[in-house]
Protein backbone atom coordinates (compact mmCIF):
# COMPACT_ATOMS: atom_id res chain seq x y z
CA UNK A 1 0.00 0.00 0.00
CA UNK A 2 2.75 2.45 0.95
CA UNK A 3 4.70 1.67 -2.24
CA UNK A 4 1.59 2.30 -4.34
CA UNK A 5 1.08 5.67 -2.62
CA UNK A 6 4.74 6.57 -3.18
CA UNK A 7 4.47 5.74 -6.87
CA UNK A 8 1.36 7.93 -7.22
CA UNK A 9 3.07 10.79 -5.43
CA UNK A 10 6.17 10.43 -7.62
CA UNK A 11 3.92 10.55 -10.68
CA UNK A 12 2.14 13.67 -9.45
CA UNK A 13 5.49 15.24 -8.58
CA UNK A 14 6.79 14.44 -12.08
CA UNK A 15 3.71 16.01 -13.67
CA UNK A 16 3.92 19.09 -11.46
CA UNK A 17 7.68 19.40 -12.12
CA UNK A 18 7.20 19.16 -15.87
CA UNK A 19 4.47 21.80 -15.72
CA UNK A 20 6.61 24.04 -13.52
CA UNK A 21 9.53 23.79 -15.93
CA UNK A 22 7.29 24.48 -18.90
CA UNK A 23 4.65 27.00 -17.89
CA UNK A 24 3.27 26.65 -14.35
CA UNK A 25 3.81 29.80 -12.26
CA UNK A 26 4.03 27.94 -8.93
CA UNK A 27 7.35 26.91 -7.39
CA UNK A 28 7.94 23.17 -7.26
CA UNK A 29 9.08 23.48 -3.66
CA UNK A 30 5.39 23.68 -2.68
CA UNK A 31 5.16 19.97 -3.41
CA UNK A 32 8.74 18.77 -3.08
CA UNK A 33 9.42 19.95 0.47
CA UNK A 34 6.33 18.37 2.05
CA UNK A 35 6.94 15.10 0.20
CA UNK A 36 10.51 15.04 1.46
CA UNK A 37 9.29 15.71 4.98
CA UNK A 38 6.63 13.03 4.74
CA UNK A 39 8.99 10.40 3.27
CA UNK A 40 12.53 11.36 4.35
CA UNK A 41 13.99 8.04 3.15
CA UNK A 42 12.83 8.88 -0.37
CA UNK A 43 13.78 12.57 -0.36
CA UNK A 44 16.75 12.18 -2.70
CA UNK A 45 14.63 10.21 -5.16
CA UNK A 46 11.97 12.92 -5.09
CA UNK A 47 14.67 15.55 -5.70
CA UNK A 48 15.94 13.63 -8.74
CA UNK A 49 12.41 13.21 -10.12
CA UNK A 50 11.90 16.96 -9.69
CA UNK A 51 15.22 17.70 -11.39
CA UNK A 52 14.65 15.47 -14.39
CA UNK A 53 11.06 16.49 -15.08
CA UNK A 54 11.46 20.22 -14.51
CA UNK A 55 14.45 20.12 -16.85
CA UNK A 56 12.37 18.25 -19.44
CA UNK A 57 9.63 20.86 -19.12
CA UNK A 58 12.24 23.57 -19.58
CA UNK A 59 13.57 21.82 -22.68
CA UNK A 60 10.07 21.72 -24.16
CA UNK A 61 9.78 25.47 -23.51
CA UNK A 62 13.22 25.94 -25.11
CA UNK A 63 12.12 23.91 -28.14
CA UNK A 64 8.87 25.86 -28.46
CA UNK A 65 10.82 29.12 -28.38
CA UNK A 66 13.37 27.78 -30.87
CA UNK A 67 10.90 26.37 -33.39
CA UNK A 68 7.55 28.11 -32.84
CA UNK A 69 8.16 31.47 -31.19
CA UNK A 70 5.74 33.42 -33.38
CA UNK A 71 2.97 30.81 -33.28
CA UNK A 72 3.02 29.80 -29.60
CA UNK A 73 5.47 31.64 -27.38
CA UNK A 74 4.89 35.34 -28.11
CA UNK A 75 1.07 35.08 -28.13
CA UNK A 76 1.09 33.41 -24.70
CA UNK A 77 3.69 35.80 -23.31
CA UNK A 78 1.63 38.75 -24.50
CA UNK A 79 -1.57 37.25 -23.14
CA UNK A 80 -0.06 36.80 -19.68
CA UNK A 81 1.71 40.17 -19.65
CA UNK A 82 5.30 38.91 -19.46
CA UNK A 83 6.60 40.76 -22.53
CA UNK A 84 8.86 43.14 -20.64
CA UNK A 85 10.19 40.40 -18.35
CA UNK A 86 10.99 38.15 -21.32
CA UNK A 87 12.63 41.03 -23.21
CA UNK A 88 14.82 41.76 -20.17
CA UNK A 89 15.72 38.08 -19.93
CA UNK A 90 16.55 38.05 -23.65
CA UNK A 91 18.99 40.91 -23.15
CA UNK A 92 20.64 39.05 -20.28
CA UNK A 93 20.94 35.84 -22.32
CA UNK A 94 22.41 37.75 -25.25
CA UNK A 95 24.99 39.26 -22.90
CA UNK A 96 25.84 36.27 -20.70
CA UNK A 97 24.62 33.19 -22.56
CA UNK A 98 23.39 30.05 -20.79
CA UNK A 99 24.84 31.22 -17.46
CA UNK A 100 21.65 33.24 -17.09
CA UNK A 101 19.68 30.01 -17.16
CA UNK A 102 21.96 28.52 -14.52
CA UNK A 103 21.24 31.51 -12.28
CA UNK A 104 17.48 31.50 -12.91
CA UNK A 105 17.42 27.83 -11.99
CA UNK A 106 18.86 28.63 -8.57
CA UNK A 107 16.95 31.79 -7.75
CA UNK A 108 13.31 32.85 -7.59
CA UNK A 109 13.68 34.30 -11.09
CA UNK A 110 11.41 32.36 -13.45
CA UNK A 111 13.24 29.38 -14.94
CA UNK A 112 10.64 29.34 -17.72
CA UNK A 113 11.64 32.81 -18.89
CA UNK A 114 15.28 31.72 -18.93
CA UNK A 115 14.57 28.68 -21.11
CA UNK A 116 12.35 30.71 -23.42
CA UNK A 117 15.02 33.40 -23.73
CA UNK A 118 17.69 30.79 -24.50
CA UNK A 119 15.48 29.30 -27.22
CA UNK A 120 14.60 32.68 -28.69
CA UNK A 121 18.21 33.86 -28.77
CA UNK A 122 19.54 30.65 -30.31
CA UNK A 123 21.70 29.34 -27.47
CA UNK A 124 22.75 25.74 -28.20
CA UNK A 125 20.89 22.78 -26.73
CA UNK A 126 23.84 21.23 -24.85
CA UNK A 127 24.74 24.39 -22.88
CA UNK A 128 21.04 24.89 -22.04
CA UNK A 129 20.70 21.29 -20.88
CA UNK A 130 23.85 21.50 -18.73
CA UNK A 131 22.85 24.84 -17.20
CA UNK A 132 19.36 23.53 -16.43
CA UNK A 133 20.61 20.30 -14.87
CA UNK A 134 23.32 21.91 -12.76
CA UNK A 135 21.02 24.59 -11.37
CA UNK A 136 18.06 22.30 -10.82
CA UNK A 137 20.10 19.50 -9.21
CA UNK A 138 21.63 22.02 -6.81
CA UNK A 139 18.32 23.59 -5.95
CA UNK A 140 16.22 20.47 -5.45
CA UNK A 141 18.86 18.48 -3.58
CA UNK A 142 19.19 21.45 -1.23
CA UNK A 143 15.40 21.60 -0.77
CA UNK A 144 15.31 17.84 -0.07
CA UNK A 145 18.13 18.11 2.45
CA UNK A 146 16.55 21.05 4.28
CA UNK A 147 13.13 19.39 4.30
CA UNK A 148 14.46 16.14 5.77
CA UNK A 149 16.36 18.02 8.46
CA UNK A 150 13.39 20.15 9.48
CA UNK A 151 10.98 17.43 10.63
CA UNK A 152 7.78 15.66 9.64
CA UNK A 153 4.45 17.03 8.53
CA UNK A 154 1.97 17.33 11.39
CA UNK A 155 -0.62 15.36 9.42
CA UNK A 156 -0.24 12.21 7.38
CA UNK A 157 -0.48 13.94 4.03
CA UNK A 158 -2.81 11.22 2.84
CA UNK A 159 -4.48 13.29 0.14
CA UNK A 160 -1.58 15.62 -0.57
CA UNK A 161 -0.94 14.29 -4.09
CA UNK A 162 -4.59 14.69 -5.06
CA UNK A 163 -4.63 18.20 -3.62
CA UNK A 164 -1.57 19.22 -5.66
CA UNK A 165 -2.97 17.63 -8.81
CA UNK A 166 -6.25 19.54 -8.34
CA UNK A 167 -4.35 22.76 -7.71
CA UNK A 168 -2.24 22.12 -10.81
CA UNK A 169 -5.33 21.58 -12.97
CA UNK A 170 -7.04 24.70 -11.60
CA UNK A 171 -3.99 26.85 -12.31
CA UNK A 172 -3.68 25.40 -15.81
CA UNK A 173 -7.34 26.24 -16.49
CA UNK A 174 -6.79 29.81 -15.30
CA UNK A 175 -3.82 30.37 -17.59
CA UNK A 176 -5.02 28.67 -20.76
From TrEMBL:
<dbReference type="GO" id="GO:0005886">
    <property type="term" value="C:plasma membrane"/>
</dbReference>
<feature type="transmembrane region" description="Helical">
    <location>
        <begin position="45"/>
        <end position="69"/>
    </location>
</feature>
<keyword id="KW-0812">Transmembrane</keyword>
<keyword id="KW-0472">Membrane</keyword>
<feature type="transmembrane region" description="Helical">
    <location>
        <begin position="155"/>
        <end position="175"/>
    </location>
</feature>
<keyword id="KW-1133">Transmembrane helix</keyword>
<dbReference type="InterPro" id="IPR051311">
    <property type="entry name" value="DedA_domain"/>
</dbReference>
<feature type="transmembrane region" description="Helical">
    <location>
        <begin position="113"/>
        <end position="135"/>
    </location>
</feature>
<protein>
    <submittedName>
        <fullName>DedA family protein</fullName>
    </submittedName>
</protein>
